[in-house]
Structure formats: C-alpha cells, structure tokens
Specification:
Blueprint lengths: L1 H9 L2 H16 L11 H11 L6 H4 L4 H9 L7 E5 L14 E5 L6 E4 L7 H12 L3 H5 L11 E5 L10 E7 L2 E9 L6 E5 L26 H12 L4 E9 L2 E8 L12 H8 L14
Antiparallel strand pairs: 1-4, 2-3, 2-4, 5-6, 5-8, 6-7, 8-9
Helix pairs in contact: 1-2, 2-3, 3-9
InterPro entries: ATPgrasp_TupA (IPR029465)
Length: 291
C-alpha cells in the first residue's frame, strides 16, 4: 500500500511535492523549498518534480549507455562485457571466466562481485538476479530516470587495483564542465567518501553518512585525462555525475548518474550543500539534455 501511494504521488505534481517534502525532512531535518531552492539536495528534489528525468533512460541504463560512451570517447574506456540477460536462467556460468561482476542495468547498487565462481552457488545467484529483474527501482525511489528501463543484468570483467578493491572517482559536472571529484574508497567494508577539486586539493567536505578516509588518497597520475573524459561525457547535460575507475593508469567508465543518492545525501555542513548547489540554477535542471 505504501509503495502504491508513493507511485500515485509521483504521477501527480502536487502530491509528489508533499511526498518529497516528507522524505527530505527525514534526511535533513529542515523544510524543503521548491519555490527558492538554495542547496544541491533541494535542487535535486526540484528536478525530480519539474525536470525531464524520464528522457534519460538510455544514459542511466548500465548497458545501453555503453553505446553513448563508445561513440563519444571510444570503446577502449568500457569495461569488457560478457553479455546482457533478461533472464537469470539464460546465464551459462561455465562460459564465464573465474571472476566477473554482475550488475542490474535498471537500478543502483544491485551488483554481485564474483571473485571465484567455484565458490558460489549458481542457484542462489540466479535467485538473487531474478529478484532484481522483478524489482522496479523507480517504484522504490520515485526516480523517473529509471522508469522506462527494461530490467536486465549485464556481466562484466572483474577489475581491481593492485592493492585490491576499487576506488570510484565521481566527477560532478555542471553544463558540461567537471567541477569537483567525489572519491569512494573501501566499498567492501568501512566505506569512506572524500572530495577534491580538479587540482586534487582536499575540499574538506564531509558526509553525515560516511567518514572521510584516514589515509591520504593519492592523486591519479592521469588525472588530466580523467577530467577530459568526464568533460566529453558530460558535454550534452546540464548536470550529470560521471563515474570512472582507474586501474593501473587505465581509465574505465562506470556509469552516468543524474540524481546522486536520490538527491538526498546529507552533508555535515549546510554550507557544503549550498556550495554544490551554487554550480547550477534550478531552471537549468528543467531539461537535463542541453539544447
């Protein structure tokens, strides 16, 4: 019943604003303003009501976006793919390498990292995949950018850094220009989030939900190339977060995100939320695709 009411509210602008105000207050303990949004998180909620998020499915779909990436910067930046599947029963694990990654193309966070397929239960994996395929991220979060994506999974090569694990470099881009970088480390355990400018100066931004890294994060030797890749991929959008990986100085594309953390992640300081929001005007988010 709760999910039904949520979806009904997403189809009615007045009800949607009421719903989002309640969710926003839960995360931020302050009233959301649609009339005069100042912070980044407020402007993201405004975009969810007034923006053309439904037009972004091709870029949000983790498989379909590969064509855009290949056409824009070249297929050498794509993580090698072993196939895309509408049904878990169609996956032949015998044909896959010893390690791989399974990703749901129609959601966020639905991933399985398989480091040794001999140690997994194929039936359990298929059961998990079918749960994903029968789920709707749009119905769970109300993010219309996921509404028209066909539920599928893509299987990709498992990539990791020499030290193990994988840092996620997330470039926040406004009107086709990267502005700052969010770095996520230790996803497997004790995840940390740090923020840097394009010269790799620490911005000292803190999330309420995650700690900053206790260890200094080294500047990638090919940072300029990463910035250029993010700039090319973001050129046609008023706002997008371009996610990249960097493995042994080779850059890989991760995904494009238009509503990071559903536009709700609280920052420890309100001034940081306002600062990020200053990069974009609300009206620029009415159409995410630049004319």
């Amino acid at each position: 019943m709760k999910e039904f009411l949520k979806i009904k509210s997403m189809e009615n602008r007045f009800l949607q604003k009421i719903w989002l105000r309640g969710v926003y207050f839960k995360y931020h303990r302050r009233v959301l303003s649609f009339r005069n949004p100042k912070t980044f998180t407020e402007k993201m909620q405004w975009a969810k009501v007034y923006g053309n998020l439904e037009d972004l499915a091709t870029y949000v779909d983790k498989y379909e976006v590969r064509r855009y990436v290949s056409d824009t910067i070249g297929e050498q930046y794509l993580i090698p793919s072993f196939g895309v599947y509408n049904n878990a029963e169609d996956i032949d694990f015998d044909l896959l390498p010893a390690s791989f990654v399974i990703k749901a193309v129609h959601s966020a966070g639905q991933n399985l990292i398989i480091t040794n397929k001999k140690k997994i239960d194929y039936d359990e994996i298929r059961k998990k995949i079918n749960q994903w395929l029968n789920s709707s991220y749009y119905k769970s979060t109300g993010e219309k950018n996921y509404k028209h994506i066909i539920p599928r999974v893509v299987i990709e090569e498992y990539i990791k850094e020499e030290t193990g694990g994988l840092k996620d470099y997330k470039f926040y881009c406004f009107k086709g220009k990267p502005s700052f970088i969010q770095v996520i480390s230790n996803r497997e355990h004790n995840q940390t989030i740090d923020y840097f400018d394009l010269k790799w100066n620490d911005l000292n931004i803190r999330s309420k939900m995650y700690l900053n890294s206790k260890k200094a994060i080294s500047k990638p030797s090919n940072l300029e190339e990463m910035v250029k890749v993010a700039e090319l991929l973001s050129a046609k959008f008023s706002f997008v977060r371009v996610d990249l990986y960097n493995v042994r100085n080779k850059i890989y594309f991760g995904e494009l995100t238009f509503t990071p953390a559903n536009g709700l992640r609280p920052y420890e300081s309100l001034k940081h939320d306002i600062w990020i929001g200053s990069f974009i005007e609300k009206e620029d988010l009415r159409s995410f695709i630049l004319k």
